[in-house]
Design goal:
The chain is α+β, with helices and mostly antiparallel strands. It folds into five domains: about 210 residues, Rossmann fold; about 160 residues, no CATH class; about 200 residues, Isoleucyl-tRNA Synthetase, domain 2 (Alpha-Beta Complex), CATH 3.90.740; about 45 residues, no CATH class; about 60 residues, Ubiquitin-like (UB roll), CATH 3.10.20. Helix 23 runs antiparallel to helix 24, helix 23 runs parallel beside helix 25 and helix 25 runs antiparallel to helix 26. It binds one RNA strand through helix 9, strand 28, helix 22, helix 24 and strand 31.
Length: about 950
RNA sequence: GGGCAAGUGGCGGAAUGGCAGACGCGCACGGUUCAGGUCCGUGUGUCCGAGAGGACGUGGGGGUUCAAGUCCCCCCUUGCCCA
């Protein structure tokens, strides 16, 4: 924006694109963008609709990142990779004629700020807001095109008011299995009152009907139907953190994801969300999304659908229902196993051991009841994870009774064993030791019979055979599965079970309901109070937000890591002036007790994308018209959603599953028109870095390591090179600030985008950044004379070679931009630049049309440089709103092409032919080439393949 | 153990089944420069050959095809997810 005219002390031309000039240009344009509101995205209606006329005829594009947690450490060069990917995309789409929404916000509730607050006494809001300010300054300096009017943090009361409102919607809804969707809870009450619907199984008190219940009992029944409900069940209690955790927050070895403290299963009353009701839709709708296959697979695995059958076994007057994924092996079932906690255990247990009871089955107890009691106690001390661990010695005791196999009439002894879990399937299994490893191990320990029903290969000498093969030993008078394959056998036996009333096909899921309450301070308070009956009541919308109260002590009560019997005590429970409140909820002023748990960290990120579309609305969580405009389906059957969502793969199951669940609830209740939140999702790669350790194994500062003759040296001493995540502990952090100071933001942007496709991880290499700086300096030199500062663009027509180079570059750059392979876009821009540097040496005029196109091509990648050159080329408006070049077809094809001539697949010659030459012409031209003649001499040509525009291949014998 | 993804020069990486290694880094040589940790140019897969040229070459093995980095099967290695 300003011309440097200082003389040069060091031989550098006065108007060269140096880092100092880049800095100056970048800061000036960032100020101008802000002053002019260049990146303000107009909404069709409402307070942000100013300027919509300008974009009314454009298709919309909603592009966003997973918003960051504002950590105090700031950003290193790995963080902006995704942010720059969406920035280049949004700038490209704006230039290509879209109305682009590219916002950014902060996911600001969470543990680190709270833990810092506990240590320092500083309110978490203070540190969090300081961190937000620091990160936004870093983002601004990168030159990203966020509409900052739409920026918010999840801790803003104006935002979490609506997080609470959505919780209320979930609380005030139930899932109707008949229509497979959520409905308002009031409709359930109406149907129950009218007798047109029965309460869900297990929700009524034993032996009573809805009509007989008292009002309080009825409320308990209704509460048990809600999508957000309180439930006493074994949950993950983490004494070290003083809070409960969701399954998703517990690692495979039974510790907390944050802090790595031991986690115990304990029955506690907690808020749950009924995500399991949506398991089927969450799996099925993956097929309608533009996500990577691996990511979809992770979600499928997490939800864990397995299809199989429920089979009913009569046992001494009762019926035990088992779930199996292998009903085809029913002929091989030789015993049953119930989870030790199975509700029928007590009723089934025999009074005395039958005569001749196997001592291995009785655990030496005098009676079955004694054995069962001892075993149940032992099992309760084991974690669920421990119980599932393979290879552990199998244990169990007999109940003293037998069940009848409906196919064979064989009597099957019934056991309890801790390898069967209550939470999965029906909590009972039919054991098929011939085809199941765990059943085999159990059968070996207890001396139980094995019947093989799948033919193993001849050389199979193992125990359980879990592979495929034809069915054997599987027939009775009515039914034979022998010889069938697995799928046919499953279908056949399931049909028989249904016909004989012994079972039916069914589907189960591994997914559990979402544990939604935490005993923490720094989270959204629940919009819930408890009345005199100790039942939950939602705080009405008019009283939202329920503000987080000020407290003296932010810490939950924590306990010794291994104190499994400790009780949760949330920090808010100590804010006694806040916890008790008098409200008039329609029955006159009454005293209520507030919920003192807070929502989990994931709540705020479940719907933030919706708020970007209407960030200032204080009447609704989002204006339906704005949701339809930015998120709505494009055609009937389309799921809608954000057009491009970029973020780390670490959120593959947690955030992405929770957000999809909330979105579907909001869809069912009619609050949004889109069925899914994120239409297209891309996981950006990671940037890792080399780290160096000295002879003692300690990391040394990576920046000070030098390479000499393939050896790495630090202060003259050889060091060992390792490769890992960028971080303080490895002393290998590089920050964007350092890179910007060294080269400017544009160079940093181009370098990050040039090292590979967006979804690929790559190592950071500071010394390679200079390549991007050189490219931008060459582009500058094409437009600006380094010596005089004059613009080199002149009114000359480009020659044909230049036109072809330009239009090929345009075509390839567009392709790279739309497929997020910015590296190939940059490679083609480099080729074009190199061509122009050669074709138009300093002192000659560069065709204006070509120079301008080059600037437009690079504008999404290096926006400040492009703005400066665009303005020097005489344009008043921002290049961000200029039209992105469109390739002309006539320049994409050559008049003549070089075609490879192969003999038996090996390239032997090149011939030039007209681009539109047909196969015959190609062959004739190839045969006329002297090298080809020499190759074919004395040989029989058996076949000729000529592909127009590609090659000719002679197959000779 | 199961599932998914990926293995291409010294490095990051290109390549609708059709001339492997685009583009960049690094390196070598040359030029500019008082100087170079500047800039510009040329070269750079491996082996043989002075050269022209030739042979080999995309983790390993097999297959499909006129033609395979690309498609299929088996194996090895690495990464991620789930156990």
């Amino acid at each position: 924006m300003s011309q440097t005219t200082e003389p040069t002390a060091d031989g550098v031309p006065p108007h060269r694109y140096t880092p100092a000039l880049a800095q100056q240009i970048e800061l000036a344009w960032q100020d101008r963008w802000e002053a002019e509101g260049t990146f303000h995205t107009p909404n069709p209606v409402g307070p942000l609709s100013e300027g919509f006329d300008r974009v009314a005829d454009r298709p919309k594009a909603f592009v966003m990142d997973m918003f960051p947690y504002p950590s105090g450490a700031g950003l290193h060069v790995g963080h902006p990779l995704g942010y720059l990917g969406t920035d280049v995309t949004s700038r490209f789409l704006r230039m290509d004629g879209r109305n682009v929404l590219h916002p950014m916000g902060y996911d600001a509730f969470g543990l680190p700020a709270e833990q810092f607050a506990v240590q320092t006494g500083q309110h978490p809001r203070v540190t969090t807001e300081a961190n937000i300010a620091a990160i936004s300054a870093q983002l601004r300096r990168l030159g990203v095109d966020h509409d900052t009017r739409r920026t918010f943090a999840t801790i803003d009361p104006g935002y979490y008011k609506w997080t609470q409102w959505i919780f209320r919607q979930v609380f005030e809804a139930w899932f109707d299995p008949e229509t497979d969707r959520a409905r308002p809870i009031t409709e359930l009450v109406t149907e129950l009152d009218a007798g047109t619907r029965q309460p869900a199984p297990g929700t009524l008190p034993e032996g009573q009907s809805w009509a007989e219940l008292s009002p309080v009992e009825r409320r308990r029944v209704v509460d048990a139907h809600r999508l957000a409900y309180r439930h006493s069940a074994p949950v993950n209690w983490c004494p070290g953190l003083g809070t409960v955790l969701s399954n998703e927050e517990v690692t495979a070895d039974g510790r907390s994801e944050r802090g790595n403290f031991p986690v115990f299963r304990r029955p506690l009353t907690q808020w749950m969300m009924r995500i399991t009701a949506y398991a089927e839709r969450l799996i099925d709708d993956l097929d309608r999304l533009d996500w990577s296959d691996s990511l979809k697979q992770m979600q499928r695995n997490w939800i864990g659908r397995s299809t199989g059958a429920r089979v009913r076994f009569p046992v001494s007057g009762e019926t035990v229902e088992v779930f199996t994924t292998r009903p085809d092996t029913l002929f091989g079932a030789t015993y049953l196993v119930l989870a030790p906690e199975h509700p029928l255990v007590e009723a089934l247990t025999a009074d005395v051991w039958p005569d001749g009871a196997d001592p291995r089955w009785t655990a030496g107890a005098a009676t079955p009841a004694e054995a069962v009691e001892a075993y149940q106690l032992q099992a309760s001390r084991r974690s669920e994870l421990e119980r599932q661990t393979e290879g552990r010695d199998k244990t169990g005791v007999w109940l003293g009774v037998t069940a009848t196999n409906p196919l064979t009439q064989r009597q099957l002894p019934v056991f309890i064993a801790d390898y069967v879990l209550t939470g999965y399937g029906t909590g009972a299994i039919m054991a098929v030791p011939g085809e199941d490893t765990r059943d085999w191990e159990f059968a070996q320990v207890l001396g139980l019979p094995v019947v093989r029903t799948v033919q193993p290969p001849a050389d199979f000498d193992g125990g359980a055979y879990t592979g495929t093969g034809p069915m054997i030993n599987s027939s009775n008078e009515q039914l034979s599965l022998d010889g069938l394959d697995k799928a046919t056998a499953i279908a056949t036996v399931t049909e028989w079970l249904v016909a004989n009333g012994c079972g039916e096909a069914t589907t189960t899921y591994k997914l559990r309901d979402w544990l939604f309450s935490r005993q923490r301070y720094w989270g959204e308070p629940f919009p819930i109070v408890y009345d005199a009956d100790d039942l939950p009541v939602a705080v009405p919308d008019s009283m939202l937000p329920v503000l987080l109260p000020e407290v003296d002590d932010y810490s939950p009560k924590t306990f010794a890591d291994d104190d499994a019997d400790s009780q949760p005590e949330p920090p808010l429970s100590r804010a006694t002036e806040w916890t008790t409140v008098t409200l008039d909820l329609g029955e006159g002023p009454q005293e209520y007790r507030r919920e003192t748990n807070t929502m989990p960290n994931w709540a705020g990120s479940c719907w933030y994308y919706l708020r970007y579309t209407d960030p200032t609305n204080d009447q609704q969580f989002v204006d339906p018209e704005l949701e339809r405009y930015w998120m709505g389906p494009r055609e009937p059957g389309d799921v809608g959603g954000v057009d491009l969502y970029v973020g780390g793969v670490e959120h593959a199951v947690l955030h992405l599953l929770y957000a999809r669940f909330w979105h579907k609830v909001l869809f069912d209740l009619g609050h949004v028109s889109s069925e899914e939140p994120f239409r297209r999702l891309v996981n950006q790669g990671y940037i890792s870095a080399y780290a160096y350790t000295d002879s003692r194994g300690f990391p040394v500062p990576a920046a000070d390591v030098v390479e000499r003759d393939g050896q790495f040296l630090y202060e003259g001493q050889p060091v060992h090179r390792e490769y890992g995540k960028m971080g303080k502990s490895l002393k290998n952090v590089v920050t964007p600030d350092e890179m910007i100071a060294m080269y400017g933001a544009d160079t940093f942007r181009v370098y990050e985008m040039s090292t590979g496709p967006l979804d690929q991880s790559r190592p950071w290499e500071t010394k390679a950044v200079v390549g991007s700086a050189r490219l931008l300096a060459r582009i500058w030199r094409v437009v600006v004379d380094e010596e005089t500062g004059e613009v080199r663009a002149g009114d000359v027509e480009p020659d044909d070679d230049t036109s072809r180079a330009l239009h090929r570059a345009i075509e390839a750059v567009r392709d790279g931009m739309t497929t997020l392979r910015f590296n190939i876009a940059i490679a083609r821009i480099t080729e074009l630049t190199n061509h122009l540097t050669q074709a138009f040496p300093p002192g000659t005029a560069v065709p204006r049309s070509v120079a301008e196109s080059l600037v437009l091509l690079v504008a999404p990648l290096a926006p400040h440089l492009a703005e400066e050159l665009w303005s020097r080329l005489g344009h008043a408006g921002s290049v961000a709103w200029a039209q992105f070049p469109v390739a002309e077809d006539r320049w994409l094809v050559d008049d003549t092409v070089e075609v490879a001539v192969q003999v038996n697949g090996k390239v032997r010659a090149q011939v030039a032919v007209p681009a539109d030459a047909d196969a015959a012409t190609l062959e004739a031209a190839a045969r006329a080439d002297e090298k080809v003649v020499a190759q074919l001499e004395g040989k029989t040509v058996r076949r000729v393949i000529a592909v127009p525009g590609r090659l000719v291949n002679f197959v000779v014998g």
